[in-house]
Amino acid sequence: MKDVGEQLAEQLKKRNWTKNYQQLIRDAFEDKEVRAFIRNNQTELTQEDIAKSASKVYEFVSVKNKIKRGEETLAPGYDPQLTLNNHLIDVTYVPSEALMVQKKRQAVHNRVRSINMPKNIRDAELADYDLEGRELAAEAAGRFIEEYTSSPKKFHRAMYLQGSFGVGKTYLLGAIANGLAEEGVASTLLHFPSFAVEMKNSIGNNGTMKMVDEVKRTPVLMLDDIGADQLSSWIRDDILGVILQYRMQEELPTFFSSNLDMVQLEKQYLTTNNRGEAEPLKAKRIMERIRFLAEEFRIVGRNRRQFKK
Ligand code: ADP
Ligand code: MG
Predict the structure, then answer these.
(1) Does ligand 1 come within 6 angstroms of the Cβ of 129?
(2) pTM of the model
(3) Which ligand has its closest atom nearest to the C-alpha of 307?
(4) Is the CB of 165 under 6 A from ligand 1?
């Protein structure tokens, strides 16, 4: 077989293309991948076909080189690929490996729904978790992910993380949510005090009940910082109570984090409403659901926030 470049030059002369363009096309046909492609498909391609495909070959090589030089292309994240299309050479664009990795990461992130949560927990990982003072909790978290993902239909008791401000409770919830997401499990992480304010501000609005409905049905729910606000009877009984009742009935895993331990949560948070009225029986009912859903873990350690800028 004659050299592809030479043969092409002959064809191009016939077509009266400008010198400059001819040179660019000739260079494109010198590309290793192009030569290999033509060699592998020589039974399908006549010289005329190859000449007609010149602009596609040129497109392929110029986009490929742009990517190599790190320049932006018309379809960022997609690599050009030579294909045969009805006896002509064509270029198709396939997602690059980097794009596939990014898409996968995005899909994992999308499985974690965060409502009023700090941004930095997006990347929280159990593997990065400093274990000091929280060995049991970290171990239980790993076990939960394993057991839940291997039998998601069975009931798995989740965790109630108790500890003072800044010890890493929220971080651990985020790490569990991300760990589950890696395994394809969707979860909702929700900062309970802000959620309660939003609910109050939208009483009577259709959105309220829709939101409660979505939250209560999520496969794995995490209520962060419960006990940090002043509770109204309405939030306790019609929002929190409704969510927990459903989750208990349906045996859906529900995590909690709080500065208060379970006993304090019942006595200091759930019993007295924001008007100062004591409703111990109602507090007890909520507490029973929390205990059914989650096992208490105490997390100790320094306040990590002091060391952050
Ligand atoms: P809490 O919810 O208990 O108040 P956070 O989870 O918000 O505490 O943690 C406080 C800060 O310390 C956050 O910036 C968090 O990213 C960081 N942090 C917490 N735990 C860890 C950990 N085990 N390893 C690394 N950083 C952590
Ligand atoms: Mg927190």
Answers:
(1) yes
(2) 0.77
(3) 1
(4) yes
